[in-house]
């Protein structure tokens, strides 16, 4: 029983040269010339078959199903003291269907524990979000582990890897949970297959320069408001909401007439833009562009052009430079306006906890709180947790001790 031709057979047939399959007519030709014509025909057919076989093999090898692992693209700081640091912070994400998030999370937890990696790994039915820290070789092995498990995902896997003197997280947390929390108005029936267009860092820079020359478009900072306070791109307005889950198209200043306007979105690593881009596309905005790899990849690739301040990160480092240290335009203290602010702090008043970007001098003068009113608060964090006397700021204390409100200082 003959089988019907498969997809590869049809592909080979479509790409074949019709002339190769034409049988020569020998009607009144002599027997010698007939043998010559047949020999030439056989040669043409043999050559065509060899060509088709080679193209078919190449097609199979390019198929994701035949690929051994997903391509990895490492993004490293150009001026980091990598030779002297044995540890690294690795950050990446994947938007790809995961059939069994709970089981997948267990696989990642076991692997990370076996190598002593610390940090966060979130797994959902829509993909992964990873920020881990450990020895550099173990971080790279983990990226390879993920690339092999998700070899059918569209690549490459952009891995931001920064050298650090010690692990940047206190413990390992691997959970099956939602990757990004959007506003309920935007989160309904988001199609993650239509998320907008990625822009390489160089192209992103050209787009921002075009905006400076009067080209149409809007730059959207898809982060928390305090992250913008510490550093942001040119042309980006401060988010009007404290957190991403409160952000809507209206809160970002988008109207129905902006559906044809180019929208340029960015965030720290890129994953928040993936979900927000899908939500905006769902709302009818046609020209949605995302900074590939986020601010970290931009700094590693382009540098500090079009950037002001520092980049807030969710680990013990608190903030990092974008591009070479000292190249970006500084962000001034929100309290005094005369000194550079390089860190993010929480108000030491436990009943306030307001996020603020201020210099250490102002923080000390206010006793670790945001205003004089909070200086009289009844419940305040201990002085070392408020950044006094060279202690940790609140975010660093949170990661170092695993809690933020233990042992409060009760004013007398």
TrEMBL record:
The record's listing under InterPro entries reads: Rhodanese-like_dom, Rhodanese-like_dom_sf, Rhodanese_C, TrhO, TRHO_N
In what residue span(s) does the Rhodanese domain sit? 213-307
Q: Name one Pfam family in it.
A: Rhodanese
What's the protein here called? Rhodanese domain-containing protein
What organism is this sequence from?
A: Durusdinium trenchii
């Amino acid at each position: 029983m003959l089988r019907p031709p498969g997809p590869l057979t049809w592909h080979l047939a479509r790409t074949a040269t019709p002339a190769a399959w034409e049988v020569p007519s020998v009607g009144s030709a002599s027997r010698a010339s007939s043998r010559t014509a047949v020999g030439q025909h056989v040669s043409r057919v043999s050559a065509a078959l060899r060509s088709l076989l080679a193209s078919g093999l190449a097609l199979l090898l390019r198929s994701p199903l035949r690929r051994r692992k997903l391509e990895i693209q490492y993004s490293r700081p150009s001026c980091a003291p990598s030779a002297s640091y044995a540890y690294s912070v690795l950050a990446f994400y994947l938007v790809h269907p995961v059939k069994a998030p709970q089981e997948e999370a267990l696989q990642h937890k076991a692997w990370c524990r076996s190598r002593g990696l610390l940090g966060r790994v979130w797994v959902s039915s829509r993909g992964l979000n990873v920020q881990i820290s450990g020895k550099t070789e173990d971080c790279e092995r983990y990226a390879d582990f993920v690339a092999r498990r998700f070899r059918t995902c569209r690549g490459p896997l952009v891995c931001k890897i920064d050298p650090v003197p010690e692990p940047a997280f206190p413990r390992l947390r691997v959970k099956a949970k939602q990757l990004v929390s959007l506003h309920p108005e935007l989160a309904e029936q988001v199609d993650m297959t239509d998320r907008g267009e990625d822009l390489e860092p160089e192209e992103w820079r050209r787009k921002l320069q075009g905006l400076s020359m009067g080209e149409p478009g809007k730059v959207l900072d898809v982060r928390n408001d305090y992250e913008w306070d510490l550093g942001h791109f040119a042309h980006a307005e401060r988010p009007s909401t404290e957190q991403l889950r409160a952000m809507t198209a209206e809160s970002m200043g988008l109207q129905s007439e902006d559906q044809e306007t180019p929208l340029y979105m960015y965030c720290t690593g890129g994953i928040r833009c993936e979900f927000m881009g899908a939500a905006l596309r769902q709302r009818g905005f046609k020209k949605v562009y995302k900074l590939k790899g986020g601010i970290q990849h931009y700094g590693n690739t382009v540098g500090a052009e079009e950037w002001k301040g520092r980049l807030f990160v969710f680990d013990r480092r608190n903030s990092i430079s974008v591009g070479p240290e000292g190249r970006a335009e500084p962000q001034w203290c929100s309290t005094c306006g005369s000194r550079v602010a390089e860190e993010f702090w929480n108000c030491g008043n436990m009943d306030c906890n307001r996020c603020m970007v201020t210099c250490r001098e102002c923080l000390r003068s206010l006793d670790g709180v945001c205003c004089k009113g909070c200086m009289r608060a009844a419940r305040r964090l201990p002085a070392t947790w408020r950044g006094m006397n060279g202690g940790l700021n609140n975010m660093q204390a949170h990661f170092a001790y695993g809690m933020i409100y233990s042992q409060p200082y009760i004013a007398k």
